[in-house]
Amino acid sequence: MTEKMTIMHNEHKRRRKQLMRTVGRGNIAIIASASATVRNNDVEHPYRQNSDFFYLSGFAEPDAVAVFIPGRKQGEYILFCREFDEKKALWTGKNAGLHGARTVYGADDAFPIDDLDEILPRMLENRARVYYPMGRDTEMDQRLMEWVNQLRQQSRGGVHAPVEFVSLEHLLHEMRLQKSAAEIQLMRQAAKISAQAHIRAMQTCRPGLHEYHIEAELMHEFMRSGLRFPAYPPIVAGGKNACILHYTNNADELKEGDLLLIDAGAEHQYYAADVTRTFPVSGRFSEPQRAIYQLVLDAQQAAIKKVRPGARWNEPHDTAVRVLTKGLVKLGLLRGPVPKLIKDEAYKIFYMHKTGHWLGMDVHDVGEYKAGNQWRRLEPGMVLTVEPGLYIPEPCKRVAKKWRGIGVRIEDDVLVTKNGCEVLSADVPRTIAEIEQLMQA
Ligand code: GLY
Ligand code: MN
Ligand code: MN
After folding, report:
1. Can you give the CATH number for the domain in which 168 is found?
2. Range of the structural domain that residue 140 is part of
3. What is the CATH number of the domain that holds 216?
């Protein structure tokens, strides 16, 4: 076991303790692992544990259920999982088994997953409240209801069935929103390696290559650093493909005179990076490309300045919208008074998404954006993306021809710190001069 793993095991333990304090004695929390899914005959998709489950357990196998019973004498943390299977070990590698669940993953007790229906109802007996992620897994929802019904039938024997069901996610997601020092370190590494990949893409790009050639360079850089999976399918979008927000076909030829938009981030020990850069295929921006790019960059820089403790979630977005709208008027792409254009959301023709989202174990990470009906305030330890863009689709008849087909987004990962913020993905060039210099070197 590496030292890094040890750090994370301590983290998982600390999280379980925190969860148990909130759940409280007399209650129970239950969470199931992600299922393995079939890609096609005899072939499974690469397995990725459910983020909530991994956050608490560090356990990366399917067919597992974690149970938390604060104050239970025989053990508070119980893990149901696959038993060690010698035959399977030969084909697909060793699994933890019940012994591993206890000794490596810190379970107080472990049982075979096949015994779940027999054992879990007894654990539910006389618990008042069940914390459980309802509505995520139909089969598991149904089983839980069956266990509860079994207990209800025993009420004349003096057994109490649970009376309250509470969403476990709400608790967990508030915890996940606040990143610990160890989590921040992992996110820093994910962002650093993703930045290296973007630099490599800029250095390799030239007309005549295809989008997938650049995707290969990104994946090469992720993998050679030990990060085998991207946090989401990379978007490598040349020319007008950049105006398709979730373009992942990545099959077209890269043309002289076009821009290339790359939105790609690696996943590092379950933590995501999410980085976008846009640059000219041939290494030099044309005048219209330069104007749009600089405007998006100005909006991004102004938005990043708003990231600090105490700021409300919407401040970076509102700032980006203001800068973009003013700039669009200046370039003649919008006409009218800026406040009215903002109020009427006229910018949405060219900027139709929000300026960011939480970032963490999921690329669009969990956590509420509002507290009551107010946008929530940023706090140190939260991580978000800042990613304004402008997209002028080709059939857009209302704009001069020179703008058509230009799509630009610039996205960085930003940690809220005690005094302001830290841009985790700052290593990738961002200014026009820096990009042109790197590409021509
Ligand atoms: N890569 C998805 C996003 O930027 O939100
Ligand atoms: Mn992105
Ligand atoms: Mn994003």
Report:
1. 3.40.350.10
2. 3-176
3. 3.90.230.10
Q: What is the pLDDT of residue 395?
A: 81
- In the chain, which stretches have pLDDT less than 50? 1-3
Known catalytic residue at 213 = no
DSSP result, 361-402? SSSS--S-SEETTEEPBP-TT-EEEE--EEEE-TT-TTS-GG
Determine which residue's CA is closest to atom 2 belonging to ligand 1. Answer: 274
Q: What are phi and psi of 325, to 5 degrees?
A: -65, -45
274 pocket-lining for ligand 1 (C-beta < 6 Å)? yes
Measured CA to CA, the distance from residue 215 to residue 211 in angstroms comes to: 6
Ligand 2 centre from 162 Cα, in Å? 42
- Please identify which of the residues 86, 139, 156, 246 carries the catalytic annotation: 246
**Residue with CA closest to ligand 1 atom 4:** 274
* Residue at a domain's end among 150, 176, 202: 176
- Is residue 146 domain-shared with residue 184, that is, in the same domain? no
Q: How high is the pLDDT of residue 7?
A: 64
Q: Are strands 406-409 and 389-392 parallel, antiparallel or unpaired?
A: antiparallel
**Residues 304 and 332 placed together within one structural domain of the fold:** yes
- Residue 65 is predicted with a pLDDT of 98
Single out the residue in 176, 197, 215 at which a domain terminates: 176
pLDDT at 1: 38
Q: Is 61 in the pocket of ligand 1 (CB under 6 A)?
A: no
CA distances from 38 to 50, 81, 205, 230 (A): 16, 20, 35, 20
Kindly give the distance from the C-alpha atom of residue 216 to the centroid of ligand 1, in angstroms, as a whole number: 19
Say if pTM beats, i.e. exceeds, 0.90: yes
